[in-house]
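pinging the channel bc i need a second pair of eyes. not urgent but kinda urgent?? the chain im working w is below, pasted from the shared doc
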Amino acid sequence: MSAPSPQLPLALRYPPDQRLDTFVANDPALMPQLRDFALAGARRALYVAGPAGTGKTHLAIALCAQAEQLGRSAVYLPLRSLAGRVRAAAEALQGHDLVAVDGLDAIAGDRDDEIALFDLHNRLHDAGRSVFYTADQPPEALALTLPDLRSRLAQSVRVALAPLDDTGRHTLLRLRAERRGLQVDAATIDWLLRRVDRDLPALTALLDRLDRASLASQRRLTVPFVRQVLAEAS
């Protein structure tokens, strides 16, 4: 009996916080480039590299959501959960205009997965489709065993992400709070950034917790209220 095909995320499951308009970039030229890619895939392959916590997964999901809003078919391929099963997942991707391949580091060194990804890249290229890659490092620094895959990845248009500074983190929290309908002033955001883990996944998880607490108590996110929520969780 053949193994069941991997479950691939649907557009309706894309988290609403992870959109292009809630991504904060150090480089102001990045967002127009990404919107252009989502709209028409003018660059067939786009490769984003950056350390953990710089928002690579956010961008991969946001691009899929943006492309589908523009009438293109898109699918998100999370390699960290598909390691060892990339061929089965790739074979299920027929007819999509954009494929977002997130986390190349997870399959580097697995020759079967690398060959499957190489074949997927070639199929998408030959069909005029778009492919978006994310990784912690540029292609030449990945521990790949397949030179042909490294060569294909190296031909992609490349973008490097850097961690946000405090101004960028402040803007990110403000935008995400506004999207959720949360009322939070600048002083409260500054207070949070001085006292919590500053990487993006941790900040997002914290905002989730504060959102639930604010809804349950019907209170605004003020410094005293946030201090109380954090104390109760410690």
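so The beta strands are 45-49, 74-78, 98-102, 130-135, 157-160. and The chain is about 45% helix and 10% strand. — does that match what u expected or am i reading it wrong
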